């Protein structure tokens, strides 16, 4: 009987040991479960913690991802803030006109009117009151003009140049001094051009794109120097003769002189003179009555055809 009881106890112990083993996970089973969890977490349903989130790029980082050229244009070493004035000459304008060898303005295609005139004023800036009057008249007629300036005058009165630019009018290069460049040596003439480019850039942040020699006097070497500066060389095709003593203090003569020479694409030469200022509103009115409009200088190609 004692032997029978011992056998029962041995069997009971074996049963208890088996149950305990089934209640525990084997190392191999645990390893399989861990591997399965990692596979799921590497999928699209992986929960993302704050430490694992990709940091947002700063504005500077975004700019650095752009092509180098775009970076330089956007964040240049010495940037000039773009003007918010819609009349600013910095606003890009489609090139719809060109200038021919006779300095006449021509449309690039039939969609642009040919009955246009280009308005230009030489030898400034002299007097703020006259400039203001000219600009007010231009604004009244929704017209743009090129103001061909002398560097020595800008040096004395840079604020007038800033006024012209602020009002959305166009600045042209008329040499540093009002002297005959044709009589100068190549280096001297070149200096007359480049020094104006520099002072204008220093004053308003951009260089002129148009050049007119004093007295309309130039040569091939001068034209080459102007081209190197990226400017369009021009004289005129319609002279108001407002500089001539026969026209002095005679606004009506200024108007008549322009009308006598009027043709489609007229490149009109005027000056910052009291009688021209007085004549301007009536002149523009008569041009409009004849069906002419005023070409935006920024729409003219910088290469003649």
Description:
This protein is α/β, with parallel strands linked by helices and 305 residues long. The chain has a domain at 115-299: Glycoside hydrolase/deacetylase (TIM Barrel, Alpha-Beta Barrel). Helices cover 44% and strands 12% of the residues. It has eleven helices and ten strands. The chain has helices spanning 2-23, 27-41, 59-65, 68-74, 128-140, 151-156, 158-166, 186-204, 220-228, 251-260, 274-289, and strands spanning 97-99, 105-107, 116-124, 145-149, 170-173, 210-211, 232-233, 238-239, 266-271, 293-294. The strands form three sheets. Strands 3, 4, 5, 8, 9 and 10 form a six-stranded parallel beta sheet that branches. Strands 1-2 form a two-stranded antiparallel sheet. Strands 6-7 form a two-stranded parallel ribbon. α5 (128-140) runs parallel beside α11.
